[in-house]
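Lab manual, section 2.4: Encoding a predicted structure.

Procedure: take the sequence of the chain (269 residues), apply the prediction step described in section 2.3, and record the output as structure tokens. A sample record is shown.
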Amino acid sequence: MKFIYLAALACCISIAAIAQQKPDTLFYESFNGNALDKAKWNVEVTGYTVNKEQQAYVDSASVLFLKAGYLNIKPVYHPGYISTLQKPYDFLSGRINTRGKFEFTYGTASARIKMSAGAGLWPAFWALGEGKWPDCGEIDIMENIGDSSWISHALHGPGYFGNTPIVHRAHHIDITQWHVYAVKWTTNSLIFSIDGVDTYTVTRPMIVHYGRWAFDNRKFIILNFALGGGYPFGINKTTEPYYGLPQSTVDKIKQGNAQMLVDWVLVTK
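Recorded output:
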């Protein structure tokens, strides 16, 4: 056990050292402080949701906090919450982004993440461009909807959005363990990987078969934890007690056993 702990510690230290020393580092966040660095991150507060999701995003330490060197996004059951737009919600969660603080065009974006399993849980690590969606382009580096054995990579843009054809499931992993999820973004391709192993490659010709290439503009990073909604429903077909969110997962949230931990985020040229 001690050896495993030391090995993990050495890995974290080496990543920090690499990020600080490499001249091609564009952005690095270690989450080692006492509070989220709001010079780097915006905390989103939403009065409504999209995709029939069941959570309201709030700026609260109850759902979004740093602990032991990790960002923790931990949804909570909060029946009767009324948003700023007078919309009712029974769940609260967290979503942060680097919009207007760090944006980039091309490079490799990666994050070390582990998550809870549970049908309808929908954590994600992604990048989005400015402007009207989907024309602005969306890069889903990692999405999970509660199945412990796979995550998905996807791209959204004009002509390929929503139930996009540009999507891939990466199987044979355990999302409840630490993994590094990444995308290498160039002028003509996006190469997704897990723990340094390429899992999905998308080229410009693959995109323009469906619509305009929407990946020459600046993107900002997003980390969030949604609950229920269209994508989970498409898999679990659950409508009760919540759309895309079964009772077993509601119980897990109530017990405080649903979370997304992020060790670090790194973007290099």
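Check your result against the sample. The first helix runs from residue 2 to 21.
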